[in-house]
Specification:
Blueprint: H1 35-39, E1 69-70, H2 106-122, H3 128-159, H4 171-203, E2 207-208, H5 216-230, E3 236-239, E4 253-260, E5 267-273, E6 281-285, E7 288-291, H6 292-297, H7 299-305, E8 310-321, H8 335-346, E9 351-357, H9 362-372, E10 379-382, H10 391-395, H11 426-432, E11 435-439, H12 448-457, E12 461-468, H13 476-486, E13 490-495, H14 503-515, E14 519-521, E15 528-529, E16 532-540, E17 543-551, E18 563-570, H15 573-587, E19 598-601, H16 605-621, E20 628-632, H17 638-649, E21 654-658, E22 675-679, E23 685-686, E24 689-693, E25 700-704, H18 710-714, E26 716-723, H19 726-740, E27 746-749, E28 755-758, H20 770-781
Parallel strand pairs: 1-17, 2-7, 9-10, 12-13, 13-14, 15-26, 18-23, 20-21, 21-22
Antiparallel strand pairs: 3-5, 4-5, 4-8, 6-7, 8-9, 11-18, 12-16, 16-17, 17-18, 19-26, 20-24, 22-27, 24-25, 25-26, 27-28
Helix pairs in contact: 2-3, 2-4, 3-4, 12-13, 16-17
């Protein structure tokens, strides 16, 4: 199978689609583009990657001292699920070549996703503290976008390797669009806080105030707090010929202070860093909270920091730095050590954004711009307070009436028909049937976590193999793996230490697991291990039986209560054999590329999906049932999108349910009139990936870890598993039907790249909320449904 990744060619300036081809609607331009940017083209650079093998040895044979047979011999299993699909890999629908300009810009699409988050904060129908939470999520999302996407784009421009995007925009055009669009969204974000959410919180007795709004008693109380708990950790840094401009760490909140020497009359600049480990909002009195920088900047407090000097002015500012990682793995003798060094270097990445209070003095701003070597386009003046990620602290207040109604997940009914104090025997349940889990509606702790904990404690379990991409700091999953290793079981853990922004935590857990006797490996050089897999090997009489879990989400008990994800628990011998083969590839030397019930990136996943999309065209032409339904976080891979376009042109209905980025232009006559794109955001983060096909009346459904992005399909180990239980396939198709229904609240994507929110019907009544429907279904099952 060849990787099917076409290099998108740029549209000729001013050219039509050509040859009577489809005429595409223009995407809305969010920023004026300078003539310089239009000329700023860059040479293309190939990004081929040689195949490499991981030097770590595999775990080895399992319990060779025990006589056993495998429950199903590998030779008895169908060797290649794609054997009958090879003819469809490169088949294309008849007709003209697909038009230029058919892809929406991914960076603009990401900003549109964050705009949808902001719309939830702006919606008066969202519970008030949840609105504050969405404001914090918006701010946190935008921080990461600048740290990674904007920083990476700037780096590629600076090094001359940036190429025209698939949407046809030059790199400089994309950057200018980002600056203009993000400025607009940040202004809306600040307005939502100041004009809507903060006043509404005040009406509910939660007052977010500034220093000048405090009473004398409150100021006195905070002065005592300042003297005893804040002042000792502050370090004012002067800037003068003897003191160079200090390093400003990324995302830190700072005060630019201008003081004057009363003797000489000279003015001086100093920087005071707001301690990041202290609470962002301090409680001045019950129900009244003030930003910590206001407490530090109070006149009598700054005088404590600069005794004998006159305090002339102070201004809050915050910078965002490039925090994307670059580890040259091929040259690294020890990936763990190389990553630790790169994490240290990341702290000193170049700035990519400067946020300042809009009242800042021009002279002070000029100094910051000059010393930070940042352009005026990257300066964002905003009304204070800056850094509204601090609203996470406000959301944590114990005011349940201002939040979503509490929901506690229950045990999946196939694992415990009647919940009781005793833990279910998960192995016995899986011998009876596969279990399809839907988190957070089904409890993670009584399913996946219990599966691994039971495996760790079971004396008949011989080995556990596990991938870890992200997990919590006090993870019971890690504890179970350690317990298993300490009891003599063979434990293999694939720890992805390059999981972005979790690198420090994963390094820590990798070492803890190694110290406990686990075999810890880091996957294949050049590829992130992103698949979500568990394999348990158990001795049952004279037989070895394999139990498996394949999921769409991380093994993270805390986020499993907030993220919507799917998982399959099974004792199916085909899945067990596939996971054994895949783990052997990840831990040892194996070139296996085909599996029985898995599609695995980077070798077979893209081609396998495209072949199935193409096959739907043939089913449609033969008059058989044909459809394509995809639920993912991101849809930007050009080869997959082109396959969807060709399916649409042939008349196949295509539904795409996407949470974030989407480069598809739906609803274009002659190209994508049979494609619908929807997005759903809510109290849970929609995170599952589902791929469903009509398959001529015998629906085929897959779930797994992969989004439709280059990084997932080309630079990661991803896995999809085919769901074979008819009831499970039907349940997943019902979920997709509900998500795509016009009666469900969602955002609809138009051909111009604009998202339109559909939250009410023609009579103004709220449309159904798919997440609330699923919550209520679980409550009804337990007899606790809302009336």
């Amino acid at each position: 199978m060849k990787p099917a990744v076409p290099e998108p060619s740029p549209p000729p300036e001013g050219a039509a689609a050509g040859n009577g081809a489809v005429k595409l609607p223009p995407a809305r331009s969010d920023a004026p583009v300078s003539p310089v940017a239009r000329k700023n083209g860059f040479m293309s650079q190939s990004d081929t990657q040689a195949e490499v093998q991981h030097p770590q040895p595999s775990v080895g044979s399992i319990a060779a001292h025990r006589p056993h047979t495998v429950a199903a011999a590998v030779s008895d299993l169908e060797p290649d699920i794609d054997a009958d699909l090879d003819a469809y890999e490169e088949s294309q629908a008849d007709g003209a070549p697909l038009p230029q300009g058919r892809f929406l810009d991914r960076e603009r699409s990401w900003l549109a996703f964050n705009e949808r988050v902001l719309e939830l904060a702006e919606d008066p129908g969202t519970p008030l503290l949840e609105r504050a939470n969405f404001l914090a999520i918006f701010a946190s999302n935008l921080d990461e976008f600048f740290m990674v996407r904007v920083a990476g784009l700037k780096r590629r421009i600076a090094t001359g390797v940036a190429t025209r995007s698939a949407s046809g925009l030059q790199p400089r055009e994309v950057l200018e669009m980002i600056w203009a669009r993000s400025r607009e969204l940040m202004a809306r974000h600040a307005a939502c806080y100041h004009e809507d959410v903060a006043p509404a919180l005040a009406e509910e007795g939660i007052h977010l105030v500034r220093w000048t709004e405090l009473t004398e008693k409150e100021q006195a109380r905070l002065f005592t707090l300042f003297r005893h708990q804040i002042f000792p950790v502050l370090t004012p840094l002067a800037v003068d010929p003897a003191h160079p401009f200090p390093y400003i760490s990324g995302l830190s909140l700072n005060l630019a202070v201008v003081v004057r020497n009363p003797v000489s009359g000279h003015k001086h600049f100093a920087r005071v860093k707001v301690p990041p480990l202290l609470s962002r909002f301090l409680e001045a009195s019950p129900g009244r909270y003030v930003p910590i920088e206001d407490v530090i900047a109070a006149p009598n407090h700054l005088e404590e920091l600069f005794p004998g000097m006159e305090i002339l002015e102070h201004h809050a500012f915050r910078i965002t730095r490039n925090e994307d990682l670059e580890v040259e793995e091929d040259d690294a003798e020890n990936l763990l050590q190389a990553l630790e060094k790169e994490l240290m270097r990341r702290r000193f990445g170049p700035p990519v954004r400067l946020e300042v209070e809009e009242s800042i003095d021009r002279e002070v701003l000029d100094l910051l711009v000059r010393e930070l070597k940042i352009s005026e386009a990257e300066v964002y003046p905003l009304p204070g307070p800056l850094d509204l990620t601090g609203l996470f602290r406000i959301h944590s207040l114990d005011r349940p009436e201002l939040k979503y109604p509490k929901f506690v997940a229950g045990t999946h009914r196939d694992l415990a028909e009647v919940e009781s104090a005793s833990a279910p025997d998960i192995f016995a349940a899986l011998r009876a049937r596969d279990v399809l889990l839907h988190h957070p509606y089904d409890s993670f702790s009584t399913s996946v976590q219990a599966f691994l904990e039971q495996a760790a404690a079971d004396p008949d379990v011989l080995a556990i193999k596990q991938t870890l991409y992200r997990t919590s700091g006090d993870s019971p999953i890690v504890d179970a793996l350690i317990d298993a290793a300490e009891s003599g079981k063979q434990v293999l853990v694939l720890v992805e230490i390059k999981a972005r922004f979790d690198e420090h935590a994963n390094i820590k857990w990798a070492r803890k697991l190694e110290e406990a006797g686990c075999h810890v490996v880091y996957g294949l050089v050049g590829l992130k291990t992103h698949c979500k897999l568990s394999l348990v090997v158990r001795q049952e009489g004279e037989t070895l039986r394999r139990y498996s879990h394949v999921g769409t989400g991380n093994y993270h008990p805390k986020t499993a209560r907030l993220y919507e994800d799917l998982g399959l628990l099974t004792a199916d011998p085909q899945v067990g054999a596939d996971l054994s083969d895949l783990f052997n590839r990840l831990s040892g030397y194996s070139r296996r590329e085909t599996y029985r019930r898995l599609l695995v990136a980077p070798k077979s996943l893209r081609d396998g999906l495209i072949a199935r999309i193409n096959k739907e065209v043939q089913h449609h032409r033969a008059g058989r049932q044909a459809f394509v339904r995809i639920k993912v976080n991101s849809m930007v891979d050009e080869a997959v999108i082109d396959a969807l376009y060709r399916a649409s042109q042939a008349g196949v209905p295509v539904d795409v349910w996407v949470r974030g980025i989407c480069a598809v232009r739906p609803g274009v006559a002659g190209l994508s009139e049979n494609i619908r794109v929807r997005s759903i955001l809510g109290r849970f983060l929609e995170h599952s990936r589902v791929f469903a096909f009509g398959n001529g009346g015998e629906p085929e459904v897959w779930i797994g870890s992969a989004d439709m992005m280059h990084r997932n399909l080309d630079r990661r180990i991803e896995a999809l598993v085919r769901v074979i239980d008819p009831a499970h396939r039907a349940a997943l198709n019902r979920l997709l039907d509900t998500g795509m229904s016009d009666g469900t609240a969602s955002w609809h994507l138009g051909p111009d790249g604009e998202w339109t929110r559909h939250a009410t019907d023609a009579d103004g009544q709220p449309l159904r909320n798919v997440q609330e429907m699923l919550i209520d279904a679980r409550r009804r099952r337990r007899g606790t449904a809302t009336p």
